[in-house]
Structure formats: structure tokens, C-alpha cells
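the two lines:
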Amino acid sequence: MDSNLLEIKDLCVQYKTHNGTVYAVNGVNLTLQKGETLGLVGETGAGKTTTALSILRLLPDRIGEIKSGSILLDGEEITKISEAEMRNIRGNKVSMIFQDPMTSLNPILPVGQQIGEAVLLHTDLNKEEREKRVDEMLTAVGLQPSRKNEYPHQFSGGMKQRIVIAIALACNPELLLADEPTTALDVTIQSQVLQMMNDLKKRFNTGMILITHDLGVVAQTCDKVAIMYAGHIVENGTVQDIYESAQHHPYTVGLFHSIPEMNKDSNRLAPIPGLMPDPMIRQEGCSFSDRCPKCSERCRREKPGNYTVSNSHTISCFLYEQGDADKEEI
Amino acid sequence: MEERCSNQPILQTKELTKYFKTSRGLLHAVDHVNLSISANKTLGVVGESGCGKSTLGRTILKLIEPTSGEILYHGVNIESCSASKMRDMRRKMQIIFQDPYASLDPRKSVKDLIADPLKVYGVSKAEREDIVFEIMKTVGIAERFAQSYPHELDGGRRQRIGIARALVLNPEFIVCDEPVSALDVSIQAQILNLLMDLQESHGLTYLFITHDLSVVRHISDEIVVMYLGVVVERAPSKELFANPLHPYTKELIRAIPIPDLKPEHKLIHSIRGEVSDPIEPPARCRFAPRCNYCTDACMGCQPALRDMGNDHYVACALYDK
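prediction for all of em together
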């Protein structure tokens, strides 16, 4: 078996605000192999972005803190290393694509220079070789190398996101964190960008964590899926487990029922009632218990563990505790 | 729900056009759009950013003055209405905005926000109170939030306030401008259900503007597809998805990521290029630069909508035979 590219164990992250402590990530476990794509799915405030920022150690200074747990990148514990060592990893071994391409580029630098910056910092290529690398990257993301001296405002939203992707991939990272990379784009542009990301990922054998709330995008791009709710991973499995198995966490079921389906004529959707719990309040039982149609007394008192339903599929819900879950019809 | 009401359209536009002056020339935001909405129905308007769908919604309400063309409300040209007549009309025509974070005054409490439109129309204070609590119940905001301010509420509740504000004057017609795009899926579903319930209970007519095809399919009776300011296809909702005719509509439907693993829903193909410049567009089919079926016939002028039967209209030279 391959060694894991990334292994997150029992990660807990908290934010200190003047209103109190925000429990953003509460014991997350994830593994990712080389070249694999993991979809991290959840709604606003579920802790998806916080998880990604923890991997890069980019949590806001003095506010966000990794309280416990470990993050192993290629076997190296990155929660313990110095900031200087971390800087060597960022943009080199691990890079990130942010959601909004309109704000993640520097408006006063030509785009070519922004792509070249990562190469300058992390390699010892000379100027000529760096220029060549910039041209290669622009071509790879489907832009004319001749446009490298233009500024971000001269590009459309889809093109800007391509440039951001070129920057992220310039040093050939092993791990790419993509935080809602296509949410700000129109559908036709989204499909272009996703297709390009799929191609590049295969070509460079990059491992990727794709953060999204769109279950359609996950189905098209991911190998594995982790469903996140209120700082917990409530269900984890391969795409087949999530989309085709009959056993699911009640939250996953609620998510799927909330999407208007393209192929079915239904009169009304079946949304999940209520709202996500306040992340400032530490919950005793299962974090989904308040909204769960199958909640029992026990769910309010105890936190469920991660129960294995098949080799690759775990669900954090008491319904699946003894493996007698086959009877559970969803 | 079908055929419950007369076929007299509640709202019609005739050659409705809005050009904006820019330093580079005229921006064709809405170009000769004809549409009609029957009472109690939902007309969906879909298209990508910059296709003119929001401008269309706002021009219909005369929040933006049209450059040319007519807007008929119950057969009356609202352009010709006197100021006082227009005030009465406004009561009947409301809008729900996209961003519940930007469309509510942060310094007003929930109660005051909802009471505002009533104040404008001179409803007495005592009456206002009753109506506000009534409407809060209708849209599902608990009474305890009456004194809260928008920043204390989540996106879903804020959008419910936006809906309450639109609803409080008992309108007939509401322009919903991307009312669920800023919301999470589980909340989005709650709001969509609410809008559909309100339509049934209050007999509302919606112009539903969105970029999300699965949402528009879910809520609309009829759909208009816009591209760069022009309507390229118009059909009943089911017909449009079962049998899309315009190359752009086909591409748009194919581009939606479907949440299942069927091989036919794999990401295999995508439309090339991007939306071209809306400023002084050349006289040809607006979609021609991205179209796989483009011929010389597409280069003369923007094709007009053609009746293909089944209430299905398409503006494409492919069908001009």
C-alpha cells in the first residue's frame, strides 16, 4: 500500500474572539494518497476552509490555533516545524487556490510576474528558465503566453482563476488545496476550469483536496468524499460509497434531498429543518442531533464515534454502531 | 395548479430595450425582449453573468428607465401612467434582491424593516404592527426576532425578511432576483419551498431570475434563456429541458454538474470561449463566436425568435428553414 501523502489525525482548531471561543474544527481525521482527489463537502461554517488553512498553517495569527491533533505531510509533522520551514513548504509542496479569483491576485503586478514569483522563491532556475516556466504554465492553463505582461483586470473571471491555478501549480506541488475554486464562476466557465484541473492533476500526479458545497462538482472530480458538519466529519468514503451506497449519515441524506434534481420532477424539496448549531457553544451529544429526524435520547448525551460500514466507508452516527445498519432504510 | 386562471397575461414586455452609455460606446444590456407572464405562474429567466437578466428585472419594475419598448401591466402601458397611478402600481409589483446581506438597512430592526413599505403607503401605526407580525408568521420568522437587527441573523432569516418586505403590501407580481444564490443548499431549499407556498396561498406571479438551472427548472412554469441581452429560447419548463433547441441552451444544460456517478454525467466536454463584449455588439448572432454550428447564415443579424410549436420559441438560424 502507498504511504499517505497527507494524514490528519484528530485535528482540533479554535478561534479566540472577544465574544468567546469558536470551536471550528473538532477532531477531524483525513488521509489522502498521492494523485488522489478528496472532496471536502459541507455548508458555510462547517470548518472546511479552517481545515485547509490548518494544513498550510495560515490560520489568522493569535486568533486561530491548532489546539490538538497532528498533520503529517509525507510523514513529516507540520504542526511542529518552524515558520521558516513552513514557508519552504507553502507554494512548493502544498499550494492553495482560493475561492475568489477577483481578490486573490495582486492588481498592480503583471500576471506573468505573479506566476514567476513562486518559481523564484522555490527553485534556483535562472531568469530565462523562469520565463520559460511561466510560458509553460500559461499554456497549460489554456492562456496565451503573450499575455503574461497584462494585469489581472484585463482578464475575465474564468481567466483569472486559470492564472491563480497556474500560480498554484508552478512549482509542481504534491498537494493542492482548492477552496471552492469554481463557485464564483458561471456554469459554462466552471466546466472548462474543472476539466482543465482534472487534466493537470493527472498530468502532474497532484493530490488534491477540493473544498466545495456542490455535490455535482464532487461527483465529476473526486475519488473520495468527506462530508463535514459543525467541525466534524460525519461521513467519509469513496465517491461510490457516498453516491451509490444505501447507508448514509442523516445529514448526507438531508443534503442530497435539498438539491433540486435535474432528472426528477418533484413538487417540493425536503430541506433539513433548522440551522447549523452555534460554533461558540460546545455541544455534548452529536452536533447534528437538533436537526436530525432520527435523533434519539442517546444522541443528545453522547458523541458518536466513527463506525465502519464497509472497507472504505465510515459514518459517525449511532445508527451504524453495530454494523446491523443494513436494516436502516434511507 | 394548471389552468386555474385566465390566460390574460399579467405582465408583458414589447421590444423592451435598455442600453447603457459607457465611454466605449453603448452597452446592450437588454435588447428587444418580448415576454409575457400569466397570472399565478412563474417565468424563469436564466443566463450567465452579464446576460442582462437583472437589468431586465429592474427595467420591468421601472427601477431603471428603459431605452425603448413597452411594459404592459394588465394591458396598461406603465410608461404612460401618471406619477400617482404609478405609485398604486408599485404596490402590486415588488422585488426580492439577491444578497440579503446588502439589501437590508443595518440600522433598522426587523420590525421596522418590514414596516417600512407600509409607512410609505401611509398605513397607521397600530395597523402596521398587526400586519408586520402577521407577515412574520407567514414567512417563518419567530416573533422574538422583531427587535433584532440584520447582523444578528443568518442568511436564511435575512432572506425571509427580504421576502416579508416584498410581501407586506400584498403584491400580485414579484421579481425574484437570484433570491437563493447567496444561501447554503439546505437553507436554499427552505426558501424555495417558502416561495412556492406563498405563490399558492397568495396567488403570486413571479419573474424568477437565476443562473442556476436546477433551481429554475424546479420553480418555473416557463423559462426564458438569455444570452448577451437577447432571448435565445423560450419554452415551458419541462419542454425546455426535455428538448432544448438552441446550441447555447444545450451547452448550458450539459455544463451543470449532476450529483451522481452515471457515466453520461461525467465531465467530458465543455463549451469553448467566453461571453463576448456587450458593448456595440456586431450585427450577427450573439452566440456565433462560441457556437459549434455557426455558418454564414449566422453572420448577418441576430435571428428572431421562431415558433417551433408546443409554445417553444428559439432564435437560431439552424431552425430557419
